[in-house]
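To the team - zinc ion complex, inputs and output below.
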Amino acid sequence: MILYNTLGGEKQEFVPHEAGKVKMYTCGPTVYHYAHIGNLRTYIMEDVLEKYLRYDGYDVLRVMNITDVGHLSSDADTGEDKMLAGAKREHKSVMDIAKFYTDAFFSDADKLNIKKPDVIEPATACIPEFIAMVQTLMDKGYAYFAGGNVYFDTAKLDNYFVFGNMNEEELQVGVREDVSEDSNKRNKNDFVLWFTQSKFEDQALKWESPWGLGYPGWHIECSAISIKHAGEYLDIHCGGVDNAFPHHTNEIAQSEAFLGHKWCPYWFHVLHLLDKRGKMSKSKGGFLTVSLLEEKGYDPLAYRFFCLQSHYRKPLVFTFENLDNTVQAYNKLIARIGKLSRDGEPDLAAAKPYQDSFKAALDNDLNTSLAITALYDVLKAELSDATKRYLIADFDRVLSLGLIEAADAKNAEAAPDADVDVAKIEALIAKRTQARADKDWATADAIRDELKAMHIVLKDGKDGVSWEIEA
Ligand code: AMP
Ligand code: ZN
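Output:
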């Protein structure tokens, strides 16, 4: 598989550390508010990546954190803790906020057919691991204590800006508009590993540490949780592109300083979902959630389809008009699949070239829109209905658009007689096929009439019999 790697700034062949196994880490949500559909674009594309790696035969271990402490509103470690701000907004405790929005996140993810990672770890469950990692960084001379906080000393590294394709000047703390300087830092890009002092009202949750009562910085969470569950060698690290700097840059700095060797060779970043105000963001407010889409009558899977139609490395502009077009395409697709007969066995040899072109699309930097074209090619192809259904179900192991389920559910829903069940129809059709083979035309006609009375219309095609519910 060829993937664009932010580390290196080019498309590269993906080769995991250990043959056949992939260790994958995903930055989890900061649970101070609902995930918006921009956040969920990132999780949808990461889900496709994970499922495609599994489809391709890899044994995947995917680890994700839940950020329930330490993520400040400013990249320069001077902002307010987002969790505390969320708790104040809703007059609840930080832990109540964390629980509520963690559950909401997984409920939304479920509606979008996003698989749960194998390991999910909230930051607050790993405080001893964070303290141990910070202590090692202090012992190795990569960290220092100043003004009550422990900082990572970026001057100790040969190359801090590992994502060379980013403009170093723009990234300097204090140059960007959204950050202000912290005078305790020896170097502008140093970052906090452990806080005991904050410009803002302190965190509600604090833990004892060798540096005093405090709480971890956001970046240390992901390094420590990843190393705890995926070990010293991670294969691929994912996140939205805004995480590349400073979050992922800092993760690399501290993980490699801690481990004493290279840590993660592949960095997968999903570009942003934009609305008319620019990047959709929780802090700006006015964002769209899955529940809001549902309230407006949209099927969450239509939003998943919307995301898969464009490449993860291009910004995606959300408008309701665009989503409406996707809904139409999605419904048509389901209707076409619904017309396929469920009879017969798939022809696996005939299916193979279609699987190859589906794989070729995803092998080429996860080109999901081409993978969807491969799906439409199946529907247009000279293949039996059984082979088409087989291929659609096969591709949907990766796309997860619920295609077969939605088509079958639509057919069942459309049946005017609720007593009519699919199994009965299929059994009658099988009986009729046998009667025709026996040249028992009277029985065959009687069965056709019986089905007609049930509002089922038969279509005899060269690939066998298909049926549909009378319009
Ligand atoms: P957060 O909950 O803010 O920690 O973000 C969760 C994930 O969503 C991270 O991987 C972010 O990089 C990503 N993300 C944030 N905003 C957007 C957006 N507008 N489009 C796509 N991904 C985003
Ligand atoms: Zn992270």
